[in-house]
Amino acid sequence: MNQLALHTFRLYIAGNGPNSSQARTNLAALCHTYLPDRHQIEIIDVYKEPKRALADRIFMTPTLVRMAPAPVLAIVGSLSDTQRVLQALGMETPPT
Predict the structure, then answer these.
(1) Distance CA 94, CA 83 (A)
(2) Residues 50-79: pLDDT tens digits?
(3) pTM of the full predicted structure?
(4) H-helix or E-strand containing 76?
(5) In the chain, N or C terminus with fewer CB closer than 10 Å?
(6) Residues 93 and 34: beta-carbon distance below 8 Å
(7) How far is CA 60 from CA 23, 35, 47, 77, in A?
(8) Backbone phi, then psi, for 74, in 5-degree steps?
(9) Residue 31: which residues within 8 A CB-CB, separation 6 or more?
């Protein structure tokens, strides 16, 4: 995968609950460290947009969906295990 490609993420959260807050913080830190200036994050609160979450087939939160680059991937959880998240996203190499 091209590490210089723009990474587009959609993070589905449930309000300001602890797992949702932790997922937001962890995703921001991961992007800042591994994808500086090469990422976009859209936050969707399923409490505020329940129909969108259902339409997008999101049934658990927090859920991170990588929209780009392909393939689309989904990770459920607070994203606290950075190495596992990087591995799931195909970004196992350290930042350059």
Answers:
(1) 10
(2) 999 999 999 999 999 999 999 999 999 999
(3) 0.88
(4) strand 73-76
(5) C
(6) no
(7) 13, 26, 12, 9
(8) -125, 140
(9) 7, 9, 39, 41
